[in-house]
């Protein structure tokens, strides 16, 4: 390991100071976000637990007062905020007011895998298709197919999403009957199941992640090969081995019938999210590739007699990947909120639906916990993007010292 990399993250190095500065900023921003979220939710008149208590004719007024006191709702707002903050940072998220006495942590643990599964698969396809399409557009600029792909991508990117999602449901679920209309499982299939749907989703997620990582790393390593035929053979082999291993794993898995049920419910929302979202990645990749192709090292690579495919994949595309990777990091950071519109349209019971229901029912503990987790993941995503840029571009961390 070089001296730079060995000492890059030490406290006294420019990169180390840059990381510490960004981390402190992230903590301060989260505290501000946490306080503002609490204030905004507290501004909603009334709360669900008080309403439920008062709607019960068998509870005398003193019982209602005692019940509110046990939850600290009779205290001044500042004291309530301090008590909740102390509990939150010690891992106590409280109980749901609208689903009392269910713990908030249990609700989030139940909904989070469903949201992560849906949006992670959609992001995977968005970036795979978007990056390849953007690379194609940049390399074949002003040639046949560029205008058609650009118009199609931008049209989908700017379409009114709720209308588009409902039209896709009408066509493929209602008219053709190819996929379910909504939900994430068929309850009849899961009666007496030896495992929960979330458990199967976790297995599906990590098996898909393993295959994607294997194919991606092998394809990336093949770009270092000088012979185009050998490079192409390695890429094909990676896809064959990866997909073959994925098929073999599930063909012999006892949970295959349950995984199929989840997968068929994923098809429509993932397809809609991919069609709507890939254009943004495509345009970022195209712009970055066009800028990179003007650099001297691309001209030098061509002058060395390297093939166009090698110049494109090994030099131009790899350098243009930085802004695409950064946008992926930031996109992953927003997965936890679940996309309220998406989950509402497709009836997907994830974090988005939980957040919407908790706000509507004035279930402040659940809403605040969901907002807080969204804020944490978003800030971590920005923090990771800042570090990525700081490592790859020394100008950023030098500028930040000023």
- Name of the CATH class of the domain at 105-362: Mainly Alpha
Order of helices and strands: HHHHHHHHHHHHHHHHH
Helix content: over 70%
Task: Give the overall average pLDDT.
Answer: 78
Strand content: under 5%
Overall geometry comes to: globular
Terminus-to-terminus distance: 29 Å
**From the coordinates shown, what is the CATH architecture of the domain at 105-362?**
Orthogonal Bundle
* Structure summary, number of beta strands: 0
Number of helices: 17
Helix- and strand-based class?
mainly alpha
- Which fold name is given in CATH as the topology of the domain at 105-362? MetI-like fold
Report on the biggest sheet: none
Low-confidence stretches: 1-6
- Rounded to an integer in angstroms, the radius of gyration calculated over CA atoms is 25 Å
Any descriptors?
17 helices, disordered N terminus, 402 residues, globular, MetI-like fold, mainly alpha
Summarize the structure.
The chain has 402 residues and is mainly alpha-helical. The chain has 17 helices and no strands.
């Amino acid at each position: 390991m070089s001296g730079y990399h060995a000492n890059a993250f030490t406290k006294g190095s420019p990169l180390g100071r840059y990381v510490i500065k960004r981390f402190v900023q992230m903590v301060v921003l989260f505290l501000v976000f946490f306080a503002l979220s609490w204030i905004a939710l507290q501004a909603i008149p009334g709360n669900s637990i008080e309403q439920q208590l008062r709607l019960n004719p068998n509870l005398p007024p003193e019982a209602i007062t005692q019940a509110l006191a046990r939850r600290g709702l009779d205290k001044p707002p500042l004291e309530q905020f301090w008590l909740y903050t102390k509990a939150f940072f010690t891992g106590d998220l409280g109980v749901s007011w609208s689903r009392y006495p269910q713990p908030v942590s249990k609700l989030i643990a139940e909904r989070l895998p469903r949201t992560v599964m849906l949006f992670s698969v959609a992001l995977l396809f968005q970036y795979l298709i978007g990056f390849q399409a953007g690379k194609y557009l940049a390399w074949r600029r002003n040639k046949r197919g560029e205008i058609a792909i650009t118009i199609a991508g931008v049209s989908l990117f700017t379409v009114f999403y709720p209308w588009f999602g409902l039209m896709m449901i009408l066509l493929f679920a209602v008219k053709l009957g190819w996929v379910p209309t909504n939900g994430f499982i068929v309850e009849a299939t899961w009666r007496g199941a030896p495992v929960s749907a979330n458990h199967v989703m976790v297995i599906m997620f990590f098996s898909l992640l393993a295959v994607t990582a294997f194919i991606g790393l092998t394809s990336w390593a093949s770009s270092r090969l000088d012979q185009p035929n050998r490079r192409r053979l390695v890429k094909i082999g990676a896809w064959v081995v990866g997909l073959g291993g994925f098929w073999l794993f599930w063909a012999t898995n006892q949970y295959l019938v349950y995984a199929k049920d989840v997968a068929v419910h994923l098809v429509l929302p993932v397809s809609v999210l991919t069609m709507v979202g890939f254009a943004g990645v495509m345009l970022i990749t195209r712009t970055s590739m066009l800028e990179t192709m003007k650099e001297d090292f691309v001209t030098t690579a061509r002058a060395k007699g390297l093939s166009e495919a090698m110049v494109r994949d090994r030099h131009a595309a790899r350098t243009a990947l930085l802004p695409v990777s950064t946008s992926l990091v930031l996109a992953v950071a927003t997965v936890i909120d679940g996309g309220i519109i998406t989950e509402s349209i497709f009836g997907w019971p994830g974090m988005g639906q939980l957040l919407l229901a908790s706000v509507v029912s004035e279930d402040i503990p659940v809403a605040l916990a969901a907002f807080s987790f969204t804020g944490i993941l978003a800030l971590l995503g920005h923090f990771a993007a800042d570090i990525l840029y700081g490592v790859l571009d020394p100008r950023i961390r030098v500028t930040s010292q000023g």
